[in-house]
Specification:
By secondary structure, the protein is an all-alpha fold. The protein has one domain: Orthogonal Bundle (Ammonium transporter fold), CATH 1.10.3430.10. It is built from 14 helices and no strands. Helix 1 packs parallel to helix 3, helix 1 runs antiparallel to helix 7 and helix 8 packs antiparallel against helix 9. The longest helix has 32 residues. It starts with a helix and ends in a 12-residue tail after the last helix.
Length: 412
């Protein structure tokens, strides 16, 4: 018998996480130059359709069919094809993970994570990548990065069997996407015009607000039911984001002598990304510490990127990659079984083994995502050009590739 409260809650959370991908499009679209608004937004929106198709066909099965414990997956790295095209799953099928919600709801909820994760990467190579190259990238990256780590951490695979925890995606989503973004920057190279400014900071603010709103579903929904852990994850999310926002504001105000609105917005996203792996496993008093570490750590990462002149245009590595790494490490410090009996005790509570498991797992995930992404782009480039021509880049991808423009300047 389904739990109607948990089922209804999870349907709302699934809708919230779905909203995050259009929100990301607004966030990136506002930060992009005026000639590349649609070019970056379409990469998020096309993921909503294409990633859903892949998830329906084989993605869900490869992530959540089979396990290392039963020997029914592939070496604990990826699942099997037992539920390809959702074979055997009916509206009456119960999700075995908690026996409270329909499996259909779990499928839809996890699908939203698969949609947004590769879309996060696009901010790094804004206005430099061909649409054909991106579509191949989107497909292959899902199969060989996202699906394996989703299965290994959340689907009963190798890392789950080892005792690694990741409440809502510090390893699976943010670390993999962030370090894939850095690899793509190194492969694709710098923009011709690096001095382009955001075309619409209000659009960035709208995107940030919707992302923050959706993140409650992202984090609190990852408990997959309504209980005390759900409430703890919800409040931890807001507290950490707020402390990160203020931390970024203070640091930037002191260093730049001005309180930057884009900095405030970026700081909040850094806090949200960093609390993601921790949200349902750490006590509330740890959330401010995590938020401060997020604001300071991600700010310093962005400054390092600027100093090294890595052209990560929208700071995907500094915010999501470093945020995911910091959050996973701090999960290893502050996790508490008192907060979540299904979790673990971290370094602060006397378990150094769990801490080192978290550090090793996030390091491996980041390294794999970086190395594989660079190699994958090299292979794709042999099939079709990954980078647009200089002429297309200077004209802007909106008109050069998509034949559209965001604003008709001839209309008042």
């Amino acid at each position: 018998m389904f739990n109607s409260g948990s089922t209804g809650f999870m349907l709302v959370c699934t809708s919230l996480v779905m909203l995050m991908t259009p929100a990301l499009a607004f966030f990136y679209g506002g930060l992009a130059s005026k000639r590349n608004i649609l070019g970056i937004m379409v990469q998020s929106f096309v993921s909503m359709g294409w990633s859903t198709l892949l998830w329906f066909l084989v993605g869900y099965s490869l992530c959540f069919s089979g396990s290392l414990a039963t020997g029914s997956d592939f070496l604990g790295i990826i699942g099997n094809f037992d539920k390809a095209m959702l074979m055997g799953v009916t509206p009456e099928s119960m999700f075995a993970g908690n026996n409270e919600i329909p499996e259909f709801v779990f499928i839809a909820f996890q699908m939203m994570f698969a949609i947004i994760t590769p879309a996060l990467i696009t901010g790094a190579f804004v206005n430099r990548v061909t649409f054909k190259g991106y579509m191949i990238f989107l497909t292959v990256w899902q199969f060989l990065v996202y699906y394996p780590f989703c299965h290994m951490v959340w689907g009963g695979g190798l890392l789950a069997d080892w005792g690694v925890l990741d409440f809502a995606g510090g390893i699976v989503v943010h670390a993999t996407a962030g370090f894939a973004a850095l690899a793509s920057v190194f492969f694709v190279g710098e923009r011709v015009d690096k001095d382009s400014t955001p075309n619409s900071i209000p659009l960035v603010a709208i995107g940030t607000g919707l992302l923050w709103f959706g993140w409650y579903g992202f984090n609190a929904g990852s408990e997959l039911r309504v209980d005390g852990v759900t409430a703890n994850a919800f409040l931890n999310t807001d507290v950490a984001a707020s402390f990160a926002l203020v931390t970024w504001l203070v640091i930037e105000w002191i260093r730049k002598r001005q309180p930057k609105f884009v900095g405030i917005l970026t700081g909040s996203i850094a806090g949200l990304a960093t609390i993601t792996p921790c949200a349902g496993f750490v006590p509330l008093w740890a959330a401010p510490i995590i938020g401060i570490c997020a604001g300071a750590g991600c700010y310093l990462a962005v400054e390092l990127k600027n100093k090294k002149k890595w052209d990560d245009a929208l700071d995907v590595w500094g915010v999501h990659g470093i945020g995911g790494v910091i959050g996973t490490i701090l999960l290893g410090v502050f996790a508490s079984k008192h907060v979540n009996p299904g979790g673990a005790d971290g370094l602060w509570f006397g378990d150094s083994t769990f801490f080192f498991k978290e550090v090793i797992s996030v390091a491996v995930a980041a390294a794999y995502a970086f190395i594989f992404t660079y190699f994958m782009l090299w292979v794709i480039n042999k099939i079709t050009p990954v980078r647009v021509s200089e002429k297309q880049e200077l004209a802007g991808l909106d008109s050069a590739i998509h034949g559209e423009i965001a604003y008709d300047e001839g209309v008042l």
